[in-house]
Design a protein that fits this description.
single chain; mainly alpha; 9 helices; 0% strand
């Protein structure tokens, strides 16, 4: 099976996730808004799902478990996209509440998260569609933690690297710097994978293109007044309907991807009369 070392890299991703989100989520779970739980629980379960996939893909005895976990992901994916939509809702609420960081970067965070949802939809749909092509399927499934990686790693940079720590409003630009550097690291990882497996890394190249679009949205979207108005609209919209829209998008992706990947028998031509 491809990417035999991916299981160990997934353990590293879990470590980054715990360290990066410990102060803002795991250590304060009883006080955070519901949107954080909608995203945090779903994203954590998704990382564990992909990790389980990497550990069960290399033994024939474990392939039934691998397939079972894969089918379970069909039901988890709508919660993943719904959780991201919930974060968009919360960000909009913070924007209209004049949160200083969101006043500076809110529309960028909003559009960047929308691009992240589009990226998840793209790579997961293609992972399902090409689930019988081992290298393609594995590449797209392993791309999903890469899309997630930026968020916790940028927080680690802000927590533990003095150059990027935020002590007041004058340091707010450091937040975007950590995001850009984290996305650059994602692209470096993709470049290394491509260098190692070349043409088989096409799924990661697709993900890399989506990451570039995401970081461009994060950096530049806040400069457009129309997007600020849209952020205000999001902030005044109740959160549950926004979560529901994300959930429906994920559910449709699971269904469409599964259907697209079904094997279709080649029709046998009827015998011609002599």
């Amino acid at each position: 099976m491809p990417y035999s070392q991916a299981r160990y890299l997934m353990l590293m991703v879990i470590g980054v996730l715990i360290v990066g989100f410990w102060p803002s989520y795991f250590a304060v779970t009883t006080t955070v808004p519901w949107q954080f739980h909608a995203h945090g629980v779903a994203a954590s379960l998704w990382v564990l799902t992909v990790t389980a996939q990497t550990w069960t893909a290399h033994s024939k005895r474990q392939l039934p478990l691998h397939r079972a976990v894969g089918k379970a992901s069909l039901f988890l994916f709508p919660f993943l996209t719904g959780g991201l939509a919930a974060i968009i809702s919360r960000q909009g609420q913070d924007f209209v509440a004049n949160d200083p960081v969101n006043l500076l970067y809110g529309p960028g965070f909003m559009i960047g998260t929308m691009v992240a949802i589009a990226a998840y939809v793209t790579v997961y749909y293609r992972a399902l569609k090409y689930r019988r092509k081992v290298w393609v399927h594995a590449g797209y499934m392993l791309s999903t933690p890469l899309i997630l990686f930026e968020s916790p790693f940028s927080r680690i940079m802000g927590l533990y690297i003095p150059r990027f720590q935020v002590h007041g409003p004058a340091d707010f630009p450091h937040i975007m710097e950590t995001i850009v550097w984290s996305c650059a690291l994602e692209l470096l990882i993709i470049a290394i994978i491509w260098w190692r497996v070349r043409d088989r890394a096409k799924p990661f190249l697709v993900t890399g293109a989506l990451i570039i679009v995401e970081v461009a949205a994060l950096v530049f979207a806040s400069d457009f007044p129309v997007l600020k108005q849209f952020d205000i609209f999001i902030g005044h919209t109740p959160g549950p309907p926004i979560w529901a829209i994300g959930f429906i998008i994920g559910a449709l992706t699971s269904f469409a991807g599964w259907e697209a990947g079904k094997s279709r028998a080649v029709p046998v031509a009827a015998p011609q009369p002599a």
